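Notes, p. 3: input format for complexes.
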Amino acid sequence: MDITFKNVTYIYQRNTPFAHKAIEDLSFHIPSGSFVAIIGHTGSGKSTLIQHLNGMVIPSEGEVTVGDFHLTQGKKPESMKELRSKVGVVFQYPEHQLFEETVGKDIAFGPENFGVPEDEIKRRIQEIIPAVGLPEELLERSPFDLSGGQMRRVAIAGVLAVKPDVLVLDEPTAGLDPRGQKDIMDMFYNLHKEQGLTTVLVTHSMEDAVKYADHVIIMNKGTKYMEGKPEEVFIQKDALNKVQLDVPEMVQFLNLFEAKFGKPIPFERQSIKEIAQSIQGIVKGAAPHE
Ligand SMILES: Nc1ncnc2c1ncn2[C@@H]1O[C@H](COP(=O)(O)OP(=O)(O)OP(=O)(O)O)[C@@H](O)[C@H]1O
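Output follows (290 residues plus adenosine-5'-triphosphate):
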């Protein structure tokens, strides 16, 4: 589903002495099927932005469009429930929301709420369990007997069981060890590709943004600071440093390589292997002929 923000401003506790503008005059367009990373220093408005996507908040000014759903002041979509079934949100530490007696019941809770028939829920669970990397025998276990990583996968399965078109991920790897972070992000990337999802990822990790996203939006103080392809945005070291962000490690490495050896290697989101090949080419080219 296409997502469009048109001159969106959001003010918390509007018309009170505590009014606080969290987002100001924000406009962008995310085409259906994109994988977008939203990055920004703490308090830059990322969470407020994503809360618009399933109508948890309605813009104070401007308009948000998600597929055919339009959100403006005084004009909520007729079926907010339908919007929420199309936009699945994986909140930070989603495992904190598990509550059912068994893993199976917890995964079924979302689709039941949206009126999905029991047979169809069963079918979806069979499909989702391997997709999130959980063994089927866990279905009858209590979610509270699982490891932290498994609990998170159960919570994610619950969101996926509703079959959303848009998947919103708010720092989905927070608190996991490096291996767990990579496994979960690879899982989301595979789901994104296989199910043709539109994925919106809020992250503090430049490395994840480079690896998985095809579009990046940098937020600063409630406004859009930069936007573009990762390979365009992440080479702008000075601009990123100004908002307390840094370029990804690979870009730092390429900058250092150029400074030390005078040989630029353009950043094109290459793999480590491809960078090594470029360096090998430079070294070979520089070697004296025998
Ligand atoms: N419920 C609220 N009431 C008042 N102000 C709020 C509320 N929630 C957030 N804010 C303020 O709005 C601004 C944007 O907050 P938001 O949580 O969207 O930022 P963020 O980029 O997601 O931050 P973080 O990376 O820390 O999660 C901040 O100044 C924050 O203090």
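The chain is about 40% helix and 20% strand.
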